[in-house]
Amino acid sequence: MIDISFLRENIMSPILHQKIFSGLIGLAVAAVIIALGYMIAKILGITTKKILYKIGFDKYFIDHNLDQSIGKASASSVVGEIVKWYVWVLFMIPAIDILQLGEISILLLDFVKWIPSLILGSVIVIAGLIASDFCARKIKNLTFGLKNQVALGVKLIILFFFLDVALVEVGLNITLIENTFLIILGGVVLALSIAIGLGLGFALKDHGKEIIDGIKKDIEKSNNS
Q: Residue 158 and residue 155: Cα distance in Å, rounded?
């Protein structure tokens, strides 16, 4: 049978009451911090968006066709959302710490502290998309052969560089990817060098023959004289 007196003593224990009360207080305070943090983060995000819009941030992106790199989204809205989430995460850290849930709190704190790195990594990727697209368009505007291929190559290299930095910021080990990319890049450079060398060789073949024939004639004239 269940020991009723034992249950009654534990339920009526002041220590248990204190723990429950402290837990409820901590939960309420954490909820207030998270709610307050969200409101502040939202206000800062909207303010950032409006300020950037007024100073012509969106217009600059549209005039330079940079909005295509971010899916034609509003650049000021993207920055505003990043600011909002970043600020909200900063409020989550003390809120989770107040809950004191032992190992669960530690795991949650580790995850929340990782989110700013994830946000920064996303910002780096967006910057890479903008920079690579901008450079590729500038190259395409030039007048030389294979400009589209060169533009694509430059775009991929810039994207990889920014992606590399972003993944490191997030905390991923990409040594194997880096080494693989360097091998591929080395192969491409070698292939281009050979192709350019062969192209120049065929292009200068006739001209080179004329130069050699001229040198031979000069030598023969000097010998005859």
A: 5
| Whether residue 199 has pLDDT greater than 60 | no
- Determine the Cα–Cα distance for residues 116 and 170; give it in Å rounded to an integer: 9
Residue spans per domain, the chain:
11-224
Rounded Cα distance between 97 and 75, Å, is: 34
pTM passes above 0.70: no
pLDDT digits (tens, 9 = 90+) for 169-191: 777 766 666 666 667 666 666 66
Q: Which string of b and e fits 146-168 if b means at least 16 CB within 10 Å? A: eeeebbebebbebbbebbbbbbe
Query: In whole angstroms, what is the distance from residue 180 CA to residue 130 CA?
Result: 25
* Cα distances (Å, whole numbers) of residue 16 to 28, 96, 99: 18, 22, 17
- Which pLDDT score is estimated for 43? 92
CA angle 176, 128, 84 (to 5 degrees): 110
- Burial of 128: CB neighbours in 10 Å, binned 0-12, 13-18, 19+: buried
